[in-house]
Structures are given as C-alpha cells and as structure tokens.
Amino acid sequence: MANTASTTAPVPSATRRRVFVSTMLGNVVEYYDFTLYGTLAAIISTQFFPSSDSVTALLAVYIGIVLSYAIRPIGGLILGPLGDIKGRKFVLILTIALMSVGTAGIGILPTYAAIGVAAPVLLMLSRLLQGVGASVEYTTAANFLFEHEKGRRPNFVAGVLNSTCSLGSFLAAGFAYVLSATMPGEAFADWGWRIPFLLSIPIAFIGIYMRNHVSETPEFQNVLKEAETEKVKQTPLRTALRFYWADMLKVIGLGAGQRIGSYTIQAYFVTALITAGFPASQALLASMLTYAVGPITSIWGGSLADRFGARPVLLTGYGLFVVLTVPAFFAIGEKSIFLATVSVIGFTLINNLLAAPLSVAYVMSFPPEVRSTASALNFNVGTSLIGATAGLVAVWLFSVTGSNVSFGWYMTAACVASILVTVFALPKALRHSRTVANPPVAQAVS
User: Fold this and answer.
1) How far apart are CA 399 and CA 370, in angstroms?
2) Which domain holds residue 368?
C-alpha cells in the first residue's frame, strides 16, 4: 500500500492535536497497567497466592500476564470487526473503559489471607478484563491516527504513538519506585502497592472524555457510505481470514523478536535484576530509566524509516539484538548495577528503534474495510503466542539453567527469524512507506 499525501483538504491543527492526545491517553493506560503488574509481580505473588512456595507463586503471577494476552485474540475477534462496522472511535472509547476497570479492580481486591482461593481467581478475572480492553487498543489507536493523518509520514506518526507506551510504563514504574522508596517496607507490601493501580481511574476519565469529543476518521466514513450505497453486508472477519491470512502471518513473523523484547523491558527486567541480587529499589530505578530514554529511538526510528525505508531500520535493529542480547544478560549477572543499567537501557533503545515500522506493518498492510479486524488479529495472535509466553519461558529457563542468559539466547533466535522475514517477505506496506515530500506531522501537533 503506497502512503502518499492526501489531495483532500488538510485536517485543522487543533483537530489533529485532539486526535493525537486522545489516542495517546489510551496507550498510556494500557502500558501503565501492563508495566505496573509486571513491576510489582513479586509483591502481588505474596498477596494473592500461598506464600509456601515463592517460585510457584511468581509463576502464577506470570500466568496472569499470559491469560491477559491469551484472551486478546478472542477480544480481537470481537472488537476488531466492531472497528470496521461501528467505527474506530466507538471501539477506542470501549477499550479504555474496559482496561481501566480491570486495572482499578486489582487495586481493591481482597488478598489470599482474607478470602483464600477466591483472591487469585478474582485477580485472573481482572487480568482477563484488562486483556479484552487492550486487545485492540494499540492497533485501533494507530489506525485512527493513520487515517486522520491521510498518509503523512506514517512511520514518524507511529513512532510518536509508540513513545506514549514508554510514558505509560514510566508513570507505572515511577509511582511504584516513589512509593517503595518513601513508604515503610511493610506498609508498601501490605497496602501501598494498591495506590498506583487506583491512579488509573482519573487518567481513564480524561481519556474517555477526549475520545468522545473527536470525529470519526474520514476513511471509515467513506467505507460506511460505500457499503450503504452498494447495499453490501460488511463481513470484515470473514474477508480478512479468507484473503489476508498470508499477510497476517508475515507481519507476525516480522514482529516476533520485538514482541519478546517489549515484554522483557516492561516486565521481566525488574525480575531478572532482583533474582541477580540487586535491591528492588535499584531494579525499579533502572526500569524507570528505560522508559525515559525509550521515546528517543522510537521517534527517531520512525523518521529514519520515512526517509530511508523500513527495511534498513529493521535490519539494523534486529542485527544489534542478535549481537548484543546475550551480552546484555551476561552483564546483568555481573553484580554491577552500572553495567546492568547500561545493558537494560541499550536493550530498550534498540527495541524502540524497531517499533515504528512494525506498527505501520501491523495496521497498514490491510485495506480500510478490514483494517481494524486484520490488524487486531495479527497483533494479538503474535503478541499472545510469542510475547506473552516469554515470561514463563524466562522463569522456566532460569529454573533449569540458573542463569538469565539462556533467555537471551531464546530471544536471539526469535530476532533471527524476524530478520529472515525482513529480507525475504517484507510486507508491502513497508516497501513503499517513504514519504520524504510530505509535510512534517510535528509542526501540526506541536
């Protein structure tokens, strides 16, 4: 799909700013929850599971992550087609509401000591609800932006959107760090950890209000008019599965290495640092630094992909991962917080470099009449099967080998697979994504 500037009237700057902010707030909520749950996994395991076996309790917490991702393909099957039938705006309001209820719910749940086995059951139900809401949040937000921007610098737009994922993660790690550093240890472990979960509520209210006050995308409005004029029944799910399954498989393979990398940054690095012997406060601080620097290469990678094409950016990022992932996990095991922090930051910079062109591939590889459905399916299937299972694989490999380096080899293999897709099966949306002549988005959203 060629991405060229639209010949229609430009969207007013004020409207574009509202579109950007409203979509980004949903991303903040999604990644705030995901990072918060992973960051506080060690504490959550003691609150909602029996304390007799700490390894089993931690594995159970990670199962909560897997469940929230396992439900996402089902959520995508339901909410993705809604985005192609009822509209992108309708789905964006629904997703932020579902995610927020799931996140805030964890903050008010009784513990295992209070209600026994019902506690982990309710915890898992909260994770499932959050997973359904998050199933199409990112792809629908990206779709909403791309269609409003009408082809203007798609990779740069995707880079800006992805940078808000780091903002959500930064807020989650930041709140957790401040509370853990300022509260007495017992108080934080007992009830203080609940506060960051409850803070998702005001963010969600702002997001819902703003999304309710932006217009539907012109491209979707055209799809609706054509369907009504030609009296054609919309069947986006059937059409996507029948005609675009091969494109979806390509995109899943293309993002495999980065999906594992994203999970590692958002959830596993804190656990890896703690199991390597670093204090929890130092692990959280290192995690916060990754979210602070992540947006730099996210936006830069998008700009480079618009200027030089997506393939060079993808090959550079995945090539660096192949060379540096195992050494990064070796550095974590060296008991030096400086080396560990440098490794984690470097890992994050590489991962975010890849994010923009991958986001374009997830969404723009498909025509507008099935775009919401197909992007939801490929993104969620890839994330659930590859990204969400990384935590269980990491914990299992550590239990077998006694080292986090084994997980580094696992991720390296996934990056090699993504390189092969980049070289031999790059999606068409990325073969024609250079838009040097288009006006910079930054001028309109600043």
Assistant:
1) 43
2) 13-214+225-434
Q: Number of structural domains, the chain?
A: 1
Provide the CATH number for the domain around residue 344. Answer: 1.20.1250.20
Q: Which of 215, 92, 93 is nearest to 143 (CA)?
A: 92
* Structural tokens at position 85: 């039938």
Q: Which residues of 351-373 are buried (b: 16+ CB within 10 A; e: fewer)?
A: bbbbbbbbbbbbbbbbebbbbbb
How many of the other CB atoms lie within 10 Å of CB of 296? Answer: 16
Q: Cα(344)–Cα(331) distance, rounded to whole angstroms? A: 9
pLDDT of residue 36: 85
The residue that leads in pLDDT, 275 or 170, is 170
**Cβ count near 314 (within 10 Å):** 28
| Residue that has been written with the tokens 């890839």 in this structure | 382
The answer to whether residue 219 is domain-embedded is no
Helix axes 236-243, 371-382, angle to 10 degrees: 60
- Asked whether residue 7 is domain-assigned, the answer is no
Stronger pLDDT, 419 or 147, i.e. the higher one: 419
Q: What percent of the chain has pLDDT over 70?
A: 92
C-alpha distance from residue 18 to each of 21, 211, 214, 226, 262 (Å): 5, 8, 7, 27, 27
C-alpha 222/C-alpha 236 separation (Å) is 15
Model pLDDT for residues 216-238, shown as the tens digit of each residue: 888 888 888 887 787 777 889 99
Question: Residues with Cβ < 8 Å from 319, sequence gap 6 or more?
Answer: 419
Closest CA to 234 of 72, 381, 87: 87
Across 37-90, where does the E strand assignment appear?
none
Q: Looking up tokens 């091969």, which residue turns up?
A: 246
Q: 176 pLDDT exceeds 80?
A: yes
The residue length of the chain stands at 446
DSSP 333: T
Question: Does a structural domain hold residue 191?
Answer: yes
**220 falls within a domain:** no
For the entire predicted model, the pTM comes to 0.81
